[in-house]
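Protein modeling request. Please complete all fields; requests missing the sequence field cannot be processed.
Requester role: graduate student
Desired output: 3D structure, token encoding
Chains: 1
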Amino acid sequence: MTIQTTKIIVKELPKSGSLETLNIYVMNTTVFYPVVHEPQKKYQSEDREYSILCFVDEEAKDKLLDEVLVNKTFALVGKDKTSKPPRRIKFPLSSQVEEGKVNYDIVDGMYGFTVARPEFSKQGKPMTINVIDKDGNEFTDNIGNGSVCNIKMFAYRNQDDQAVVMLDTVQVIEHVPYEAKGGSGSVEDDILGVTYKTKQVNTPAETPVENGQKTNSKSAKPDQSKPEPDSDDFEDQLPF
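Delivered output (240 residues):
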């Protein structure tokens, strides 16, 4: 098994008042569930946010935790479990889930973490994510699971010297087109003697299941079965 190599670059920024600020770059990361063009509702909340799930190799994970001191939790694909009961493998392999369920075989041996950005700043100012291609041009297509990106995060150091991070820019390096579940499928009809695409009724995108019920959001982008977030996301601590 060959594990994709990721690289971490840190750039110190001028202080924002008394706060030490920096940019953290995660280069060559495979991503899942990118919500970067339009915010979606947070889990069990009416607030909305942008977010992306990134996978890094062990060396990059150790640098982020031990040197950069990011305030994040990482989970090893196929091994580490969720913190909340019922505990289950957070990023399962195909051998650990039913056939047809989302799996993380392409990032086996890597560590996943989520970084987000709220829809509004503390002052109520709308916030957005810069999404660009290799040449710096605006990238407007939906990004599918398994795409390779460079991620830029903004961070400030809290009173414990930890780097509290917020998603800033996504640069798409290798694009995997998004494939929505429940989209137009195909039917092979042996009576008619043809194979044809079926039409689907357009309905508002569904947000993740909450309390056993699905909720509709007209403006939400497809979430590709986005998993429940970690309990240690600290974006709410951002003072901006």
